[in-house]
Amino acid sequence: EFEDLPAKKDDATEIIKLKASKRLNLNPPDIRLGYQKLSRDGTVKVLAVVVNKDTVVSCEDACLESGFEVGRISIHSFNLLNLFSQEASVHGICPVIIRLDDYFSIMFLKNGILDFYRCKVVRGSDGTGTKEISSSFLSYRGKNPDTPLDNIYLISMSGDFEEMVRKAVGVEVRLFALDTVLKPGPAVPAGQFSLGYLAALGAAAGI
Q1: Cβ(82)–Cβ(203) below 8 Å
Q2: Where are the alpha helices (DSSP H) in 66-192?
Q3: How many CA atoms lie within 13 A of 110 on its CB side?
Q4: CB burial readout 5-18, b (16+ within 10 A) else e
Q5: CA pair distance 183, 14, nearest whole angstrom
């Protein structure tokens, strides 16, 4: 939590990195950091993800050995959220659920700023996912009773998850389908067109 942060992203990142490193008892040069601002009255709260620099360097080296140059390493859910910033700025509130493998993230953008974030593991069809989504949605609605929540955006490669979300929230689910946004070119191997490509688009949108 900060009283204020610089408008310039590089300066803000350094301040957040310094505070995170102190809290985690790490040296600032030894970490890499990604973050999203959270909307709060009077102060700035930040949701940060911290990774050891050696882990990032290992990933970069592996890519270089395979003939790829790494331009950016960041967080899929944060990057995908960038695609909805305009929607949130127009309508004030924008709920988004992202399903990737066994994980899902539920987020609420309010006036273009992340206002709620929860990430959970969902495996199989035991009803856990429905309960987690429903409780998150009800929790946010309870804390924001005057905020209209008429629909929710879903990014997922699985059709059955769309039905799970619809049952859990009881509002219109707008599926943000990958193949309606991007079309794979001939260089993309069959069966490997994934949300990673859409996350890369979101990363570019947030630069």
Answers
A1: yes
A2: 76-81, 85-91, 128-143, 159-169, 178-181
A3: 16
A4: beeeeeebbeebbe
A5: 37
Residue with tokens 């539920």: 106
Which of 131, 126, 134, 90 lies closest to 109, judged by CA? 90
Q: Which amino acid is at 98?
A: I
Q: What is the pLDDT of residues 135-181, one digit of tens each?
A: 888 888 888 888 778 888 888 766 677 888 888 888 888 887 666 66
Single-letter amino acid, residue 173: V
Question: Please, are residues 151 and 171 in contact by the beta-carbon 8 Å criterion?
Answer: yes
Q: How far apart are CA 144 and CA 157, in angstroms?
A: 30
Give the DSSP H/E element, type plus range, for residue 44: strand 44-52
| Identity at 51, one-letter amino acid code | V
What is the reported pTM?
A: 0.68
Tokens 């899929």 found at: 76
Instruction: Characterise 67 by phi-psi region: left (phi > 0), alpha (psi -120 to 50), beta (else).
Output: left
Strands 151-155 and 93-100: parallel
